[in-house]
Amino acid sequence: MALTGRAALLAALGSIPVGILEPGWTGILAVNAPLALACACDFALAVPVRRLALTRSGDTSTRLGETADVTLTITNPTRRPLRAQLRDAWPPSSWQPGTEIEASRHRLIIPPGERRRATTRLRPTRRGDRQADRVTIRSYGPLGLFSRQGAHKVPWTVRVLPPFTSRKHLPSKLARLRELDGRTSVLTRGEGTEFDSLREYVPGDDTRSIDWRATARQSIVAVRTWRPERDRHILLVLDTGRTSAGRVGDAPRLDASMDAALLLAALASRAGDRVALLAYDRRVRALVQGASAGDVLPSLVNAMAPLEPELVETDARGLTATALRTAPRRSLIVLLTTLDAAPVEQGLLPVLPQLTQRHTVLVASVADPHIARMAEARGNTEAVYEAAAAAQAQSERRHTAEQLRRHGVTVVDATPEDLAPALADAYLALKAAGRL
Description:
alpha/beta
């Protein structure tokens, strides 16, 4: 049997049988004076862990699905070289499954009075704040027979931001916005209240837009064109109650709502509108107000990052009162919530007139694509029953949406992949119609 260096040394010193030694052994198995002396010397020459100085640097934020590098700087102030193994502990959701051991462990050799860096690469699997736990160091003597072990607290926080996957839709929505603003050759105008210019009447124009005074002064029929209103106020309201915790695919509904809200915020800020955010269930979870156009998106992303669904029923009256205080002047209130019958009929509908009499209200909800697949399933008895249940769920959802529309509410109901562009299209349609 081939012997490792430590095993051969112990065998030479007359210790226990070599066959039961393991590479990671660090205990005292001395049975005679030479072995005890070797272990004592090895222990004495191992650098004390408590004398090491540790500091951190690196990334403080990253988007979900991307990586963040956090660097530990270890200083050895002693007169002995440090030979060590280091474990940089973080919460399990800081890495992809199965990669923690490789990513968090480092081997170090630091000469006396010098420093070295060890970089831990995180790849978080959940939004929110990830805080470093402790750094555990095992310092070995020159013979590797004995080690000292200790831990240091080196605080550091990495904020994991929403991924904003719907950003890919932003160029096409901005192109449509430029058409509404008349900055492209399409020259489409919204029926807003901000006068833009006069042009010649063409068949199909609204006769109410004819400027009779200008027509009397010219030899053509002149119509007014209107620029869609700018500097409108938009309040994004995220319902963080229990219904937002329902998972659609691999993520909760709240994440899809956040993604849609971010696309709308990016679009509205480019349109010159003012955007605010309110996250609420039974109390305010996040509030962003007064951010400039250039800061609104980073402010929203940072505020959304630590949000998690709360397993409580949303207080619709409290949400409405808080929204009215947050938006004192006429605004577009975008409520990202559920279209389930019970929460809407018992919670939202009774207080909805308080919002609609002062504001334009848009309700956006995440639909489960699995329900649509179930409704189309056939082939056996079980599939038929599932299709019937799915059809009933879809019917109830359509009925709830129709109730909201009868109160003057615009409703967007779409799957997670389609919710963000559908919500942006609804905003553009309201802007073109002059309803903001």
